[in-house]
Amino acid sequence: MSADLSAGAGPALDRPGSAGNDRGAGRARPGLRGSLAVSELLTLFRRRRTQAILGVLAGVPLLIAVAVKLSSDDGRGGRGPALVDRLSQNGLFVGVTALVVSIPLFVPVAIGVVAGDTIAGEANLGTLRYLLVAPAGRTRLLVVKYLGAAAFCVVAPLTVVVVGAVIGAALFDVGPVPLLSGDTVSVPESIVRALLVAAYVAVSMLGLSAVGLFVSTLTEIPVGAMAATVTLAITSQILDALPQVEWLHPYLLSHHWLDLGDLLRTPIGWESFGANAVLQAGYVAVFGALAWARLTTRDVLS
Amino acid sequence: MTAREVLSDELTPDGVRPAPHAVPWAAPAGAAGAGAAGELAISTAGLVKRYRHQTAVAGIDLAVPRGAVYGFLGPNGSGKTTTIRMLLGLSTASGGTIEVLGRPMPQDVRTVLPRVGALVEGPAFYPFLSGADNLRRLDAADRDAPARTRRVRVAAALDRVGLTNAAGKRVRAYSLGMKQRLGIAAALLGPRDLLVLDEPTNGLDPQGTREVRHLVTDLARDGATLFVSSHLLAEVEQVCTHVGVMSAGRLVAQGTLAELAAAGTSRLRLRTPDGPAAIAVLTRFGLADPEVDGEDVTAVLPAASAPEPERIVADLVRADVRVRGFALERESLEDRFVALTGEGFDVVR
Question: Which domains does chain B possess?
Fold first, then answer.
């Protein structure tokens, strides 16, 4: 490669920097390929909006913990829902409870914002054309963008669980945790379970991220892509609640979103985890392919 | 009527559309058309871009020689940016072929674009990142750019456009001119064989405009080919070696700057009370379209083998024409540009 650079091109610019000689070295190291992915993560998580979304998600366990603390101080314990009521007995419940509460709306909205912004946001800023001229490569850019959204799928539920555990430990007692199956597990084991729940939610959101990525390739208006993605997530949950379309339920994006109870039993049941993973992988494959077909053929006019 | 208006009227008679393909100004196509394809930094053949309701680019044959500073001129909406988008593989052509640095586009985007720096349709950056961080991200997007030297190259590019002091500032706080400079810096992140700069002086103050001109000259001296689009002739005239003129999606002229200037006509202006006698002499010399307006006599010099002006004066005096004033008015490049693209303020389509 470096050979035809000097042969075909006439005198190459030697400025700025004296980078001309380093090009060959850079090409020889495939390990650097990840650097656009690193840049994507830095750009995503340094952005105030991303931080604000994570802040809102962190507010959910905070709100629950403080509310329960205040009401139990009043001596009115026992009137809330069973799960929430247990919080006052063991602070380690806070994170998982907050996450379960967030699954239907808060988490999908957060994912919808990030995934809907992936391509449409770049197009809207005009940076899409500069990334492509760099050249980032359309397929590579799409993969990197999806990786960024997927990373957010991991970070978002993790934030809820971790903030919940910390605030719970601060406000309530911490001890061995009773599971749904009636057994009790140690504190370290309960932390593993909480992380498993976070992982379950992360996997649940991978399909929605792929949908968001695809919608994002269709428009230059990120808000439109975000709204469409969130709307699809909610529509899926509504359909899942309608017995008239029961034949459709196993294929719905959100069908397994709340089936994480198996992870809170002894022994751990992996069936729903597996079924959910297969379903989400299907969504990733279908909508990833659609996004690819769209982005690689589209005229970038923004 | 001023002389200029007369001239442009004659050069663009009503109802005559510019030729569908580029007309070289001189009989030989000049440096642009002469060399083998390998000597062209950019060449297109019959390049067409059609949108649903209109044809934005109607079959153009660009020929940008290596090492040239090519001014891509045309009024707003004449298809310049659309053409640039196709050259860079951002949009696909509806017809025709493109070669950039000797490789077909968009097929060879991956190998061609690392050697091309571009500013397309104004600068665009992440407002929440600093200038330097924006450049680092763009550099990371180029697989061929070594991460090891990224910091140095970003600093050098910022230095070159005078943004070193604003490197750590968020782009949100940049003025339009600063963003424009940052856009140029992004095009200079690596060693480039070709720079495509779309309206590079947009939003810059006169000082910045002059700096960009110097930069263009510097880059050309370093051996890069520059493709600079502009709707302002004055901006391009001072730095370009070659020019292509777009009008309503067609390339109406292409060649060296000297060829463009040579293709313009010269007009003789004579001040004398002896109009008819003067016209008789001028016609003998082959001057066209003589006109008498009081004491003013004007005529167009033939483009080829124009007679020496001093001989015309001598003959006029010999024919007892009282010569009170004599001048040759060369059509300016601007007149030529206006003649080629039409003068109106209204967007053509």
Answer: 23-124+181-262 (3.40.50.300), 264-337 (3.30.70.100)
